[in-house]
Amino acid sequence: MPTDTSALVTNGTDASSKPPSSSKAAAISVLDPSNFPQTLSSETIYISLVYDPLDIPAYLRFTRSPTAGANVLFLGTTRNNFDHRPVSRLSYSAYPSLALKSLYAIAEDVQKKHGLEKVVIVHRLGEVKVEEESIAVSVSSGHRASGWKGAEEILERVKARAEIWKREWFADTGEVEEGVWRANRDTDGHGNIVQPQ
């Protein structure tokens, strides 16, 4: 996988981690897929935002290490429902330059905290159909406990902090055309809806 720690093109206008308002949504929705993938990486961390389907074998190759006894891979996929409503598809948008920096900081912090050898976080942008992967988190560690804990903590922090938003299209109402913007952190690890604070 390529290494690119140079400055990246900034698309969008909203630096917060809240879902965009309709005017901000218009600016964010014009992200140009030809400017992607956008990547930040080092010898032990690989972060990327992509429009194409995720390259899962490449992420496992990156995290594999002769000193790692555990390789943990999490794939977040689009399911066909949310809160008992049928979902036809999702679309993801982001503030790329900030999202990449946030994802890298999360990876670096969790890597140190749990003693992880290598970390990959890759998030899709654009339309992600039902059963397709929207995020991959892959980590390697000396032992499984730190790998499990580290991968889960990365995912929870990404949902809480990264400048990435999803838009859901429901198949049961007129919202099929408009969609509904939603923060990634709207549900917890058990699928329970988290009330805004």
From TrEMBL:
<protein>
    <recommendedName>
        <fullName>Molybdopterin synthase catalytic subunit</fullName>
        <ecNumber>2.8.1.12</ecNumber>
    </recommendedName>
</protein>
<feature type="binding site">
    <location>
        <position position="159"/>
    </location>
    <ligand>
        <name>substrate</name>
    </ligand>
</feature>
<keyword id="KW-0808">Transferase</keyword>
<comment type="subunit">
    <text>Heterotetramer; composed of 2 small (MOCS2A) and 2 large (MOCS2B) subunits.</text>
</comment>
<dbReference type="InterPro" id="IPR003448">
    <property type="entry name" value="Mopterin_biosynth_MoaE"/>
</dbReference>
<feature type="binding site">
    <location>
        <begin position="166"/>
        <end position="168"/>
    </location>
    <ligand>
        <name>substrate</name>
    </ligand>
</feature>
<feature type="binding site">
    <location>
        <begin position="143"/>
        <end position="144"/>
    </location>
    <ligand>
        <name>substrate</name>
    </ligand>
</feature>
<dbReference type="Pfam" id="PF02391">
    <property type="entry name" value="MoaE"/>
</dbReference>
<feature type="compositionally biased region" description="Polar residues">
    <location>
        <begin position="1"/>
        <end position="14"/>
    </location>
</feature>
<comment type="similarity">
    <text>Belongs to the MoaE family. MOCS2B subfamily.</text>
</comment>
<comment type="pathway">
    <text>Cofactor biosynthesis; molybdopterin biosynthesis.</text>
</comment>
<keyword id="KW-0963">Cytoplasm</keyword>
<dbReference type="InterPro" id="IPR036563">
    <property type="entry name" value="MoaE_sf"/>
</dbReference>
<dbReference type="InterPro" id="IPR028888">
    <property type="entry name" value="MOCS2B_euk"/>
</dbReference>
<keyword id="KW-0501">Molybdenum cofactor biosynthesis</keyword>
<dbReference type="GO" id="GO:0030366">
    <property type="term" value="F:molybdopterin synthase activity"/>
</dbReference>
<comment type="function">
    <text>Catalytic subunit of the molybdopterin synthase complex, a complex that catalyzes the conversion of precursor Z into molybdopterin. Acts by mediating the incorporation of 2 sulfur atoms from thiocarboxylated MOCS2A into precursor Z to generate a dithiolene group.</text>
</comment>
<feature type="region of interest" description="Disordered">
    <location>
        <begin position="1"/>
        <end position="23"/>
    </location>
</feature>
<dbReference type="GO" id="GO:0006777">
    <property type="term" value="P:Mo-molybdopterin cofactor biosynthetic process"/>
</dbReference>
<dbReference type="GO" id="GO:1990140">
    <property type="term" value="C:molybdopterin synthase complex"/>
</dbReference>
